[in-house]
Amino acid sequence: MVVTASRTEQDPFDAPRAIDVIGGDDLRSGQYRSLPQALRTLPSTLIQETAPGQGSPFLRGFTGYSNLLLIDGIRVNNSTFRSGPNQYWSTIDPLALDRIEVLRGPASAQYGSDAVGGTVQVFTKSPDRYGKQGFTTGGLLLGRWADAEDSIAGRGELHGGYVRDGGLRTGVLLGGDARAFGDIEGGDATGLQPNTAHDETAFDLKIEHWLGADEKLVFLHQQVAQNDVPRTHATIYGESYAGSAVGTDLQRNLDQNRRLTYLQWHRTALSGPVQAMHFSVSWQTQRELEDRITNTNSQRWQAFEVGTIGTFAQFESDLGTAGRLTYGLDYYHDNVNSWFRRSGTPAASDPIQGQVGNDSRYDLFGVFVQDEIPLGDSVAAQAGVRWTYAAVDSDSVRDPSNAKIAVKDDWDAVTANLHLRWEVVRDWNLYGGVSQGFRAPSLSDLTAFDVARSGEQEVPTPGLDEEEYVGYELGTKVRSDRFSGQLAYFYTDIADQILRFPTGTTNGSGQPIVTKANVGDGFVEGVELQYGVEVVERTTLFGANSWQYGRVSNFNNNGLSRGEEFVSRLMPFTTVVGLRWQDAAGRLRASTEVVRAEDADKTSAGDNRDTQRIPPGGTPGYTIWNLRCGFDLDPRTTLELACENVTDVDYRVHGSGSNGLGTNFVVGMQITF
């Protein structure tokens, strides 16, 4: 069952949208080093990595703040998220996850601002050690070693449970892990890539207390810290690939710290007009510190901290023949402090702002309603509408003339969706629909004063309007004992997208200055195919194909004229094909897959200016071959082995700041007790 497509439990086959689930077994066998890496073989999904610790998925042509990330229903996106590839998704600990759900396409009627390219929801692990009655304890030890990453990771979990009279229970999960990544080894022609190492630590605590058979309280606290994650492409240690440029900084490292604490109450199987209720209150903090040494040996520190209080309430009512209604509201409030300091005696500080406006507040409020309506024995509809309100109040912002100004603005939008599913015959359906997307200008859009792409200077731009999108989708799903598959065509209409473009001027360091405006009108379209067929007993042939094309308008010559260009970092035609086998007892499994990406030569003017990450003329295509196998040594011990990029191909994923891994041997072991 999935919940992201409709906000309620639903068989993914019945969802009239393209949706994928990466379950716990898939996460364990894949041995992924990050959340973005776990999505890398899904259709219409390009995983850009500025560095191995900084991954940003492109979903149906969109990345950064145009994709929404949720943890157990709570927004991770905040007002400081940037437009282009960013590193925040890599602060989600993949070892602490139970499953991942990916909904592709606009979903602002369900989730509000930012749900444009896709919505990814991760679900955290829950306590699972319960006896028939009384106390039960147990735990888990997990280790991972990878050759080309020069990495080692370990996680430990302690589970405790108490079952009371009547079967009610309380469970506790306490987990923590540490991971160290060395300098990565590229393919045959690249070799060792210096200045790509970093380390991470994580901790999580989850308590579930059942008040009744259908009622529970859930408390979660989690925190992740990344230390000295380099933006290698911007430094002298960057690798030139197919003619790409090398950066000039002597150092550019990021520290990331993210914390989330929430309390949720869930009640189902109620009698009366409301059958289910869900309430949540949460507190998040995100802190980012950039430590940069320029080519003139000047050291600069830039940091910001965001504190976000969030809450949501969701209700479900069964209307009989009129469908099942899901409705509610959510609210998030950001407090942002941002500062800048550079080397000196004493150190000189910027009195106005750091990366974004200082002393800032950002509010996001929404009210939604959605109905799942049966229209007969074989046809069903899903329709929803949402009103979203966003407001910003930033007291300390640097305008282009270096004066201190305040930025205050607000936006609102009504978004809707309508999707139909027709069950042609049993286990075969056709679906189609229209869904709107909406994104309010963020604090980053309005107040960013930062280095963008390959050395551009981005300046604050107040007065921006909201972005609007309309997504159209047609598809079909089929499943049987031996075959499953889905095919989808999508078209996303783009209106008033906020895009960067050069002003024709430079700053005191000679960097070109870029500004922003609502100049982007265009589209992205694509075709997605997924399939799995049991070719012989217990052996499955699986695969996926992705094709994308998109155009959008932008200023292309220092803001003097407006023309049409390709959408930035358009995903090249990509094919995944493989075989998966499992023995009759389910204790031994093996798989092999080949990933082919064609030349990524459809580039925008911004891509062409991003010379440190994207080679002249685009990124060359590549083919990589992976092998995996797993063994259940006993009921409590599992061993996972992999050889990635078997032929040691030298390659770079389009838009990334470092090359992909060469031949990479991975060993993982999990022991439960």
Set down the secondary structure blueprint.
Layout (H helix, E strand, L loop, with lengths): L18 E4 L1 H7 L4 H4 L6 E7 L2 E6 L7 E5 L2 E2 L21 E8 L3 H4 L6 E7 L9 E13 L4 E13 L5 E13 L16 E15 L2 E16 L20 E17 L8 E18 L5 E20 L5 E19 L5 E2 L8 E17 L4 E20 L5 E22 L2 E12 L3 H5 L2 E3 L3 E3 L8 E13 L3 E24 L5 E25 L2 E17 L6 E5 L7 E9 L5 E10 L7 H5 L12 E13 L2 E8 L19 E9 L1
Parallel strand pairs: 4-7, 23-26
Antiparallel strand pairs: 1-6, 2-3, 4-5, 6-7, 8-9, 8-33, 9-10, 10-11, 11-12, 12-13, 13-14, 14-15, 15-16, 16-17, 16-18, 18-19, 19-20, 20-21, 21-24, 22-23, 24-25, 25-26, 26-27, 27-28, 27-29, 29-30, 30-31, 31-32, 32-33
Structure in words:
The protein is mainly beta. It has one domain: Beta Barrel (Maltoporin, Chain A). The chain has five helices and 33 strands. The protein has a 22-stranded antiparallel β-barrel. A five-stranded mixed beta sheet has the order 1-6-7-4-5. It has a two-stranded antiparallel sheet with strand order 2-3. Strand 29 and strand 30 form a beta hairpin. The longest helix has 7 residues, at 24-30. It is globular. The model has no long low-confidence stretch (mean pLDDT 94).
